[in-house]
Write a structure and sequence with these properties.
Elements (H helix, E strand, L loop, with lengths): L1 H7 L13 E3 L4 H9 L5 E6 L4 H13 L8 E6 L4 H11 L7 E6 L2 E7 L13
Parallel strand pairs: 1-3, 2-3
Antiparallel strand pairs: 2-4, 4-5
Length: 129
């Protein structure tokens, strides 16, 4: 029975939830600040759809793999279901077609890397610090 418990969640040991240094991105006005701040520190935007299972899976993988601190870069979380207008403006301002989930890396005012879906976790954020 032990194998079935392990496979189907019968394990009572709670996994400690990892907390990232997220900054909520919920206003268009923040985008200018992100662009300006990217001249001195790498800025990252994670666009997430709360209605999409794939987006949730990619987000969980991202959180599990993330090893950086708030000193390394600024990490913004955009709930694009609740802040569609901000998501649209991200696309206009940074000239990146909207996808979800999506990760954008911004340096010196421009997007230097972006990807969506499975490609989000293939971006090596260390190389942009």
């Amino acid at each position: 029975m032990g194998i079935f418990s392990a496979l189907f969640g019968g394990n009572k040991e709670a996994k400690e939830k990892k907390i990232l240094p997220w900054i909520a991105l919920n206003a268009i006005e923040q985008l200018k600040h992100i662009q300006e701040k990217s001249n001195t520190k790498t800025q990252v935007i994670f666009k997430h759809s709360t209605r999409c299972g794939v987006s949730r899976m990619v987000l969980n993988q991202f959180v599990d793999a993330y090893e950086l601190t708030a000193d390394d870069l600024d990490l913004y979380f955009l709930d694009l279901v609740n802040y569609r207008n901000v998501s649209n403006e991200v696309g206009y301002m940074f000239q990146v077609m909207h996808e979800s989930p999506q990760l954008l890396v911004i340096k010196n005012g421009v997007v230097v890397a972006h990807d969506s879906h499975g490609g989000v976790n293939a971006i090596d954020l260390n190389s942009f610090i």
